[in-house]
Amino acid sequence: MQQTTAFIKGFQKTIKALIKHTQTLYLSDEVPWVIGYSGGKDSTAILQLMWYAISELPKKKHIKPIYVISTDTLVENPIVALWVEKSLKVMKQAAIEQDLPITPHRLIPEVPDRFWVNLIGRGYPAPRPKFRWCTNRLKINPSNNFINNVIRQNGQVILLLGTRKAESVVRAANMEKHEKTSSRKQFSTNASLPNSWIYTPIADWTNDDVWMYITQVKNPWGHDNKALLNMYQGATADGECPLVVDTSTPSCGDSRFGCYVCTMVEQDKSMHAMIQNDEEKEWMLPLMLLRNEWLDIKEDRKHRDFRRMNGKLKVFSGRLVHGPYKQNYREQILGAVLKAQIAVQKNGPAEVKNLELISFEDLEEIRRIWVMEKHEIEDNLPQIYERIMKKNYPGKCLDDNQVFQAEDIAFLKEICKNDDLHHFQLIRELLDLEQQHRTMARRAGLYESLDNTLLRNAFTNAEEAEAFALRRQAALDEVRGETDSIPKENLVLFS
User: Which pLDDT belongs to residue 414?
Assistant: First the structure.
């Protein structure tokens, strides 16, 4: 082990001083604390420090609540997710038995924010650095919603995070900047959450400092820190997935353990190493293949609509920017997820026999989006589910008034079969819009919806759309060039 920096004055003396300091901060006001816990080494270290600090205080000095929050994206590495879930259960029981003001909470994204709902349902392409749509929905929103609720009830909140300056130069600069601008001593400002401050007790620790502490000091809620070390040793480079409260925090993909669907990195090194180093973890192979074969595709234009989500055309660098995944590809991905779920449940250990990669709630929301928002009136999701899962789909009919039967859809496809599905999709949407508005007294919005549908389907293929978009872009550039020479006071004529 390398020479540590935090414990130069002595291990026991340093820990004792830090616990004393944490006690002083806890007793300094009545502002509740929220601790971000990911189950990794850094968050385990700060939670241990806090736990010991509070447990050594007299019961009468337990003056305010401490919330331990852990965000499960529902697409986490299953081994880590199971570790965290078990840890939270043990933690909850230990806090009750030790009569401590500590309550753990497992947070999950709202159904509309979940990964598969957005990717398979809405057709969002797999996340990329320039379109990182997942972090806010899966990580930031659940934690911030909880924290904001605490702020509404108490006026303020103090966050305890396991962030460390040794993690990166950028992280160190960020932490030092917020330390200098803070209006409260010992705390950093939180730019993304007003009325909240951040306390980082291990900010100056190195990786070795963290491991020395959690391996030499017994876990106070009864979990096994050696098992945590073994989990880290099962993979490659060090790091962990922190509590994410703003977009400056690295994505899980840059961390030791992250989401198995993450396409923000070239490879899920931790999962790859776990599978490679331990035959008993080969059951996770379908998850890695799901990411590599269906999501991490460098050139996916053929799977995406040439129109954006709102139906508009956009040109960048002389090329049409493609939008959401097409219906056929979304259906294929759904099938791949269900097959991976079957494989994991069949080949995995007892604790994953009931693991759902995609929940019934997710399936129902995806189905609703397909039928009600995307006008895919075939309602194919139950058929896909039943074909792969070999059992009846548990959901009910979406709309008792649905008038389009399977034979109607088949007939419509037959008469449009020579038009590469374009006319079928157009007529399908027009018919469904009329159907949705038929019971309205005033049928408000029908004509606007019909107009938007006709405009969105004005082009039969990407080549036509791109040629038009480039001509339009050239015309706009020419107009802008001409207006550059016009006096500003006369530009109102062209507005």
Answer: 79
- Which tops the pLDDT comparison, 418 or 248? 418
Q: How many residues does the chain have?
A: 495
- Contact assessment for residue 420 and residue 386, using Cβ atoms and an 8 Å cutoff: no
- If you average pLDDT over every residue of the chain, what do you get? 85
210, part of any domain: yes
Q: Are 60 and 88 in contact (CB under 8 A)?
A: no
Closest CA relative to residue 156, chosen from 167, 147, 165: 147
Q: What pLDDT score does 244 carry? A: 52
Q: Where are the beta strands (DSSP E) in 46-148?
A: 66-71, 102-107
Please identify, among 256, 278, 293, the residue that sits at the C-terminal boundary of a domain: 256
Q: How many domains does the chain have?
A: 2
The per-residue pLDDT for 454 is 84
**Kind of pairing between the strands at 188-189 and 196-199:** antiparallel
Give me the percent of the chain exceeding a pLDDT of 70. Answer: 84
Strand partners, 36: 69
- Residue 316 sits at φ, ψ, to 5 deg, of -140, 130
Instruction: Give the integer Cα–Cα distance in Å for 343 and 416.
Output: 38
Segments forming the whole domain that contains residue 244: 11-111+125-256
Question: Which residue among 256, 290, 323 closes a domain?
Answer: 256
Q: What is the pLDDT of residues 443-476, one digit of tens each?
A: 677 878 888 888 888 888 888 888 888 888 888 8
Residue 99 lies in a domain: yes
252 and 241 in contact (C-beta within 8 Å)?
yes
Span between the terminal Cα atoms of the chain, in Å: 68
Residue 102 has pLDDT above 70, yes or no: yes
Among all chains, which residue has been given the structure tokens 């038929």?
438
Q: For residues 95 and 221, is the Cβ–Cβ distance under 8 A? A: yes
The residue whose two tokens read 């098992």 is 227
Helices 11-27 and 41-55 pack at an angle, to 10 degrees, of 70
Quick check: 33 and 66 in contact, CB under 8 A? yes
pLDDT of residue 220: 97
Q: What is the pLDDT of residues 48-67, one digit of tens each?
A: 999 999 999 999 999 999 99
Q: Which among 100, 89, 20 has a CA at the least distance from the CA of 65?
A: 100
Assess if residue 371 is contained within a domain.
Answer: no
* DSSP code for 259: B
What 3-state class would DSSP assign to 244? coil
Confidence (pTM) = 0.85
Using one digit for the tens of pLDDT, what is the confidence trace for 390-422?
A: 999 999 876 655 667 777 778 777 777 766 677
Determine contact, residues 283/347, Cβ cutoff 8 Å: yes
Query: Contact at 8 Å (CB) between 381 and 132?
Result: no
The dihedral of CA 284, 290, 291, 292: what is its sign? positive
Could you say which DSSP state residue 103 is in? Answer: E
Q: Is residue 360 part of a domain?
A: no
Going 261 to 252 to 297 to 299, the CA torsion angle's sign is positive
Question: Could you give the CA distance from residue 140 to residue 246 in angstroms, rounded to a whole number?
Answer: 6
